Amino acid sequence: MFGRWSAFALVWILLIVKGAISVDIKKLSVPDYVLIDTDNKTDDHVILDCDFELDDKGKPSFVLKWFKDDVLIYQWISGHKPQALASMKEQIDTSYETSSDDSYKYRGIYIDDVNIKNSGKYKCVVSTSSSIDQEEKSLKVIDISQDYSLEVLQRIVDNKTEVACVAKNIYPKPELSLTDDNKPVKVKSDDVTKNSKGLYTVKIAGFIDDDDADNDGIGNKHDDDDDNDGIKDIHDDDDDNDGIKDDKDDDDDNDGVKDHDEDDHDDTDSTDTYKCTLVIPGTKFKRVAQIEHCSLSHACI
Question: Is the pTM of this model over 0.90?
Fold first, then answer.
């Protein structure tokens, strides 16, 4: 008895599977970010595409839905016109055709007048009477259109250099990092504010101890006696304090290697900088600002 029921159930399942229409989302195209800028680089619209395939080559019935943060914003029932719904009803152009094939032409959505409220998770769901598939991706809208700036500031406090990086009027909240000649600077403080328009201002700062190679308690950036011999550098003709005047000395740094045999390139002109890097997590968006170490030619604030 059990064997006959098992055989009947197997035949029934096979008949259902034979008549089933399978759906497969091949690719969900959602950019990781859209940029709102002021200098003619603004993306005032974005197109999201849900490239799917049905294994039935005829014209099977299906329903395609787009969700933003789990809220239904778009629906297309095969054989009918698509509908835009909810808060994005006025932004979605339902006449936009993604494909010339009638079976797939309304699979994507065209979002006009993009703004920061359009950031979120977008999900495409395609279903038939017997099959369903779905894919989800995040979209971030980056707004730097309203007095955005990124700058590095520095000042001397008690033989220490305070370096700060400030990003103003940006959405979403960015991540900032500081480097000194490409070496990470340890951040001692950070501050985040958000204005009424939803734009962030972020500041990070850290202190850098000036090098004190001659151990005299004076950082090199402010030391006019580098070899600590009691003679100011401007009057000193023996910079390495080895008893040999510089014009007779072929080992200026007193390391035992003659200068003409020593490969010791000075890269300070290209690396003597503080650099601030701004990124938006989850995207490839990146901005960099830098400033030279303060000196006689570049005064500290």
Answer: no
